[in-house]
Amino acid sequence: MAGRFSPDRPHAPARSATLRASGLSRRWTPPEGPYDLGLVLGPLRRGPGDPTFRAGGDGTVWRTCRTPEGAGTVRVGRDGRDVVAEAWGPGAGWLLERLPGLLGADDDPGAFTPRHRVLAEAQRRRPGLRLCRTGLVLESLIPSVLEQKVTTVEAYRAWRLLVRKYGEPAPGPGGEGNEDEHTRLYVVPDARTWALVPSWEWHKAGVDAKRSATILRAVRVARRMEEAAAMAPAEAAARLELIPGIGPWTAAEVIQRSNGAPDAVTVGDLHLPGIVGHALADDRDADDAAMLELLAPYEGQRHRAVRLILLSGRVPARRAPRMEIRNIARL
């Protein structure tokens, strides 16, 4: 079931959104069963200071996008069983038309059958998990490239600095209407702006030449990259991997979000094989091959299985030093 849609007023425009002076609004009823808005949208957040994402203390989530129709901001929250969204900017209509997909309407949690106790328990404790689908590629591709071979601290810092410097204040009260520069929301730069970021600004943000070159190659064919969001996951991954510097790790991280791919496994990760091995076989030394073998019973739903493992909290204790945090801007 895709859930039920109902406009805020009985005579809504054909675009399924109600025009208000403050923006556009939409009300959507998720399919029957548990539903956790934070779990659904959480993977779109790139660190606590992400200028494109904000989680409110009241359970609302703010998110900004560079849609095909322009910049947009959407705020989503719960009203009883329903999800209520309000959007601003040229991309508001696009965002609200695709709201159900973003909120997991295309996902089918019933297709997953836990075969390990740890997964059954995680599913029981966090039953509201659904996989989102943004329909946008570059907004996930660029931060995923920034996360290649570095700590998340470094990658989140680079994303934060670059978006605030080269993005634009988001439309609506969270961006243009927010006077606090520390909490102001920004929309990611468009492809042309990314292409014009000077080499020294990448350096100042702590991004080495290899990662910045990969991003530049991707934004030069931005339209072709965005087409991947409408493809089957395997085809989408193959499209992304045509770009030198984008491999299976990066492609999986992107299509998990852009395509809502339930089977996209992140291979090549430093920690994930050990986490999966520890959770499913008490083998913290598992490599990618062992991880894929352990996940084989969940073929078709392997990404969901990994999400549940991470939500279970059953991760091995660290026994090696953390990756060193570098600051190439000082080199």
TrEMBL record:
Keywords: DNA damage, DNA repair. GO terms for molecular function: alkylated DNA binding; DNA-3-methyladenine glycosylase activity; DNA-7-methylguanine glycosylase activity. Residues 1-11 have a biased composition (Basic and acidic residues). The keyword Plastid does not apply. Residues 1-28 are annotated as: Disordered. GO terms for cellular component: cytoplasm; protein-DNA complex. Gene3D superfamilies: Hypothetical protein, domain 2 (1.10.340.30). InterPro entries: Alkylbase_DNA_Glycosylase/TA, DNA_glycosylase. The keyword DNA damage applies. One of its GO terms (biological process) is DNA alkylation repair. This is DNA-3-methyladenine glycosylase 2 family protein.
